[in-house]
Amino acid sequence: MPSDSLCFEANHLSRAFGHGRRRRLAVNDATFTIREREIVSLVGQSGCGKTVLAKMLLRLEKPTSGQLLFRGRPIDAAADPREHWRQVQAVFQDPYAAFNQFFSIRSQLKAAFHLFPQRPSEREMEERVDQALLAVNIRPPDIEGKYPFELSGGQMQRMLLARIFILRPQVLIADEPTSMVDACSRAGILEYLMKLKEELQMTIVFVTHDIGLAYYVSDRIFILHEGQIVEQGTPDAVTQSPTSPVTRQLLDDIPSLHREWIGRAPRA
Amino acid sequence: MFANHPTLRYIAGRAGWYALTFFVAVAINFWLPRLGDANPVDTLMSKVSGSLDAKSARDKEESYLKEFGLVDLDEQGRIVRDADGVPVRTSILSQFIRYVGMSVRGDFGSSIVQYPRPVADIITTALPWTLALQIPALILGWFIGNSLGALAAYRRGVFDRVLYPMALLVSAIPSFCFGILLVYVFGIQLEWLPTLGGYDDGMNPGLTWAFVQSASQYYVLPFFSIFLLVVGGQAIGMRSMCIYELGTDYVRYAKLLGVRESMIVRYMFRNAMLPQLTGLALTLGGMVGGALIAEMIFSYPGLGLSMLTAIQSLDYPVITGCTLLVTICVLIANFTVDILIGFLDPRIRAAREGGH
Amino acid sequence: MTPILEVDRLSLHYRTRFGGRIHAVDDVSFTLQKGEILGIAGESGCGKTTLVSGLMGLLIPPLHRTTGAVRIAGRDILGLTPDEARRTVLGREVSMIPQGALNSLNPTRKVKDLAADVIRSHDERADRSAIHDRLRERFTKIGLDADAVLDAYPVQLPAGTKQRVVIGISTLLNPKIVIADEPSSALDVSTQKAVIRLLFDLLDEGIVSSMIFITHELSLLRHVSSRIAVMYAGQIVELGTTEQVIFDGRQPYTRALMGSMLSAEPGQKARKPVAIEGAPPYLGQELHGCRFAPRCPVAKPDCAGRDQVLREVKNHWVRCHHAE
Ligand SMILES: Nc1ncnc2c1ncn2[C@@H]1O[C@H](COP(=O)(O)OP(=O)(O)OP(=O)(O)O)[C@@H](O)[C@H]1O
Ligand SMILES: Nc1ncnc2c1ncn2[C@@H]1O[C@H](COP(=O)(O)OP(=O)(O)O)[C@@H](O)[C@H]1O
Ligand code: SF4
Ligand SMILES: [Mg+2]
Ligand SMILES: [Mg+2]
C-alpha cells in the first residue's frame, strides 16, 4: 500500500532541448508527487516526453527549470549520483543494450554488487544471484555459461528484473519494459514486476504507451501530451471519466476484444 | 556570420580544430630536435676550425650564430656578448617565433650538414620523388583494397577464402619487415629488380628515355611495398563492413521487393565506404609514416631518406622542415576527408541541420 | 473459388554452421482467397518471419526448402531461380511490409531514390519524371506530405511516418498479396491504429487484393483478419475463422495464448493475465510427440508420445488429439 510520505515531488519541472528556433520543451511545467510504495504510470504517445521525464527522476537528465525533490531533498543534493542510483534503479526499453555482449550473464548479474559500498562474500553473492534467477522463474543451470545473444528478448527482460532483485532498490523506473517482447512473455514480465513490488516494497514509475497496461498495474496514472501532464488520477477515474480529449483518444486506440475498434468488420 | 548557416559553421568548426592541431604539431616539431645538447654552430665549427686562424674562426662563428638565430643582436646588428665575451643565447621562445616567421615565408633555413644548402632546396629535390611514389601507391591501394574487400564480401566462396588470409597476412607484417622481405626476395635472391636508390648511379635526373627507364625499375619494389600494405589493410576493413551491411534489415527488405542486385551492391558499397572513409581520416598519418619508412628501407631519394640522414646527423633544420611539410600535407588530406564524410553521410548532415 | 495463394505442406530449415538443421517451418498448409486478410499469430521464434521468406519465394541462405510448395496461380514459386523470382514474383505478385520497418530503409538514400529503385528494378524503361509523378501521387494517396517526405532521408522521419513510407514503397507495384510482418508492434497504440486504417484503405482501393497479417497480438487480429492461423514451434496448431479461434479456440495453446493476453479493458475489472510457463522446444532437434506437451496445462499421459496432426474439429483445424 502506498504510504503518505513523498518519494518524488516535482514543481513546475521543465526540460528543453535545442536552441533558438529549434528549442522544444520535451517536458513542460510538470507538477506532481509520487508517494512511497506507489505505482505510477506515465502514459502517452511516442515522443510525448515520457522517457525524458523518467530520466530526470533517475538523475540522468537535468531539468532546465523547476524543482525536483527526492525524499524531501533536491535530487542532486549529493555530489555523487551513485548515491541516488543505489536507491533508484531502472529497466529500459532495450534489454540487450543493458548488458555487455562479451561477458556471461551470470558474471554480469554478479557485477551488480559493485554498486554497493561493501560487497558480500563470494558465496553469499552466488546464492543471491541464484535466488534472483529463481524469482524470475529461470533455473540457474539454464543460463550457466550463456551470453546475452543466446537468450530471447523476453528472457533478457527477466534478467534485467533479476538484477533489480539483486540490487533491491527502493525505487524502480521501468521504461516500456515490455515493448520488445511478445504478448505472452509480457504477461510473465508483469507478473514478476508485481512480485518484485510485493517482496521489495518498491515505489515504481512505469512508462508505457498502452493505457490498458497502465490500468492493470498502477495506483495512479499520469497522461502526458507534448511534455505536459494533461490528466492524473486513479486508473478507474482516468479510464471511466476521462477529462482530457488526449486520454479519450488513448483509450479509444487500444484494440480490445469486446469493443468496436476501427469502425469496420473484418473482411471475409 | 556563420551562426545561421549550419554547413559553414560545421566547416569552420572543423577548421578550428585542425588549426589547433597544426599549431601543436608545429610546436612539437620545433622543440623535439632541440631537446638534445647538440649545437649546430659547434658542429659546423668543428668541421672548419682546423683550417682557420682565430680571427676568421671568430667571424665564421658569428656569422653562423646570426644565421641560425641563436643569439640576440643589438641595434647595430652586432652580437650581444656578456662580460666574458661569450655570445648571449636567445631564449627558445624567440627562436620559435623567428622559426614560425620564416616558415610562413617558406624559408626553412640552411642545412647544417650540407651547409650552406637551404633546406627548401633539399625538400624541393626530394619532394617530387616522394609524391610520385606515395600518391599513386596510397590512392590506388585504397581503391583497389576497398574494391577487393567489397568483392570478397559479396562473392564469398573461393575468392574470399584465398583473398582474406592473404590480406590478413600482409597487413599483419610490420611495414619495415615487409619492405625488407621484398628486398630480400626480389632484389637479392631473384635479382629481378634493383633495390637501393631511385635510379642507376651516374645518371643525371632529367627527362631522358634512359633515365625514365632506369627510374621505373627502381620504382617497382618501393611502390609495391606501400601499395600491398594499403591494399591488405583496406580490404580487411571493407570486407567486414560489407558483410555487416549485407546482413542489415534494409538489404533484406530491398531483396524481398525485387530490387536489382546491382543496386543492392551499390547500397552496400556506399554504406560500407562511409566508415572506411572515417577510418582513412584516422589512419592517413600512419599510412604516410609507413610509406616514409619504406623510402628509408629502399634508400629512395625522397623525403623519407632526407629525414633519415638528417636524423642520423642531427641536422635539425632539415628534420623540422621535412616533418613540417609532411604534417601540413597529412592535415590537409585529413581535413578534406573529414569534410567529405560530413557531406557524403546524410546521417551526419541531418544531425547537423537539425532534422526531424 | 480458386485460391490466390496455396501453401502445400511447406517445411523450411536453416542450415547451421556445424552441419545441423533448424526446422523453423514444419508442414504448414493453408490457402489465401482473393480479398481476404489472413492473420498468423504466435510467440516470437515460432517461425512467422521464416514462413514469410518462403511465401515470397526468396530463400536467402542459410534458409532452404525441405519439402512442400508455395503456389501462386498454380505455379510453384519456390522452384524459380532467384532472378526469375525477383523479376516475376517479388514486389508484384507478393510484397511484404517488414518487421522492424524502422531499420528497413537504407539510411543513406533519399526516400524518392529508394522508391525509384523499386520501380526501375521492374521496369527499366520507366523515365524519371514519370516515376516522380507516380511517387507523388501514391505518397499523397497514403496521407503523406509527398514533397517533403520524398525529399527526406529516412533518419529525418518520425517512426509513424517511416512506417507509412515503408507501406507506400511495398505497395508501389500494386502487388496481389501483401504480407505484413508485425507492422505495428514497434508503434504506439495511436500510430498503430492509423497504420492499420491505411492497410484497409489500400485493400478498398484495389491497390492490394489480399493480405497476410502477422502479429503476436490476438486482440489486434480480432479487428483485422477474417481467419487466423495460430503457430507454435514451426507448425500451425489451429486454423479457423477469427470468431472461432479467439472466442472458441479448441487447441490448448490457443487458449493459453488468449489467457496470457492482457485484456485489461479500461472500465472493466482487470482479468489477470496468465503467463505460459516454460519455453518452446529447440527446433534444431528431432521432435516427437505433441510439441506443446511440456507446457500444456491439460496434457494427458499419452500426449508426449503421440505425434499430432491437424484434424477437423467443428469446422476448423486443430492439432491436438484431445480437442473436441
Ligand atoms: N537528447 C535529446 N536531444 C534532443 N531532443 C530530445 C532528446 N531526448 C528526447 N528528445 C525529444 O524530446 C521529446 C520527448 O522524447 P521522449 O524520449 O521522452 O519520448 P517518449 O515519450 O519516451 O517516446 P517513446 O514512446 O517513443 O519512447 C521528443 O520530441 C524527442 O525527440
Ligand atoms: N538465420 C538463422 N539461422 C538459424 N536459425 C534461425 C535463423 N533465423 C531464425 N532462426 C530460427 O528459426 C526459428 C523461427 O524464427 P522466426 O521465423 O524469425 O520467428 P518469428 O518471426 O516467429 O519470431 C527460431 O527458432 C529462430 O531461432
Ligand atoms: S495433444 Fe495433449 S499436450 Fe498437446 S495440446 Fe493437446 S492436450 Fe495439450
Ligand atoms: Mg521512450
Ligand atoms: Mg519475426
Topology:
The complex is a heterotrimer of chains A (268), B (356) and C (324).
Chain A: E1 6-17, E2 24-35, E3 39-43, H1 50-57, E4 65-70, E5 73-74, H2 81-87, E6 88-91, H3 105-111, H4 122-135, H5 140-143, H6 153-167, E7 171-175, H7 183-200, E8 203-208, H8 211-217, E9 220-225, E10 228-233, H9 235-240, H10 245-253
Parallel strand pairs in A: 3-8, 3-9, 6-7, 7-8
Antiparallel strand pairs in A: 1-2, 1-4, 4-5, 9-10
Chain B: H1 6-34, H2 40-48, H3 54-67, H4 92-104, H5 119-155, H6 157-172, H7 175-189, H8 209-246, H9 249-256, H10 261-297, H11 303-312, H12 316-344, H13 346-353
Helix pairs in contact in B: 1-12, 2-3, 5-6, 5-8, 5-10, 5-11, 5-12, 6-8, 7-8, 7-10, 8-10, 10-11, 10-12, 11-12
Chain C: E1 5-15, E2 21-32, E3 37-41, H1 48-56, E4 63-72, E5 75-76, H2 82-88, E6 94-97, H3 111-122, H4 128-141, H5 146-150, H6 159-170, E7 177-181, H7 189-204, E8 210-215, H8 218-224, E9 227-232, E10 235-241, H9 242-248, H10 252-260, E11 311-313, E12 316-318
Parallel strand pairs in C: 3-8, 3-9, 6-7, 7-8
Antiparallel strand pairs in C: 1-2, 1-4, 4-5, 9-10, 10-12, 11-12
Bound molecules: adenosine-5'-triphosphate (ATP), adenosine-5'-diphosphate, iron/sulfur cluster and magnesium ion (MG) (2 copies).
One magnesium ion binds next to helix 1 of chain A.
Count of extended strands of chain C = 12
State the fourth-level CATH superfamily of one domain in chain A.
Answer: P-loop containing nucleotide triphosphate hydrolases
Quaternary: heterotrimer
* Gross CATH architecture of one domain in chain A: 3-Layer(aba) Sandwich
Strand content of chain C: 15-25%
Instruction: Kindly name the structural category of chain C.
Output: alpha/beta
With helices defined by DSSP (H or I, 4 residues minimum), what is the helix count of chain A?
Answer: 10
Q: Profile the largest sheet of chain A.
A: 6 strands, mixed
Uncertain stretches of chain C: none
What is the CATH H-level superfamily of chain C?
P-loop containing nucleotide triphosphate hydrolases
Rg of chain A: 19 Å
The main sheet of chain C comes to: 8 strands, mixed
Please state how the strands of the largest beta sheet of chain A are arranged side by side.
6-7-8-3-9-10
Mean pLDDT of chain A: 86
End-to-end Cα distance of chain C, whole Å, is 29 Å
